[in-house]
Sequence to fold (163 residues):
Amino acid sequence: MSELENTNEASIQSLLKNGGVYFNVKGDRPEIIFKSIISKLNFPEDFDTNKLYEELCHREELMSTAVGNGIAIPHPRYPLLTNDADQKLIVCFLDKPVMMNPPDMRPVYVFFILLTSNTKTHLKMLSQLAFLFQKPEFRHLLEQKPSEEELLKEITQSLKVEA
Fold:
């Protein structure tokens, strides 16, 4: 039983544990990076990874998911997962930064790919990510390409301060 099944409400930490942290992800365009990372992830047997790929690309075409400071939050426009236990936050540190029309024109070096099963969780995770990205110490940690354990520790510490 996953951590998500043990709780009534998903946390950013549980989604990260389900998704994982990947390093040196190759690709010079978001669509190549999406294809690369999707191939590495575990999904339910009936999940359509082609649909996920199309939705991530389509979302990026509509408007860049780059939020500044070298960070992007690629996500489908609506939840594609049906089970709360399958929700994921995938952190991808890129091999080489890519330009994604960010507000500060800084190339993106890290993706936080958010995959949820409902709008409430989706919005909560986006809000928490936005809070974390405002913190200079969190952004500095990201630049060091931390391990999953280091990232989880900083997230937990930063969100405790908020509460």
About this structure: The domain at 3-162 is CATH 3.40.930.10 (Mannitol-specific EII; Chain A).
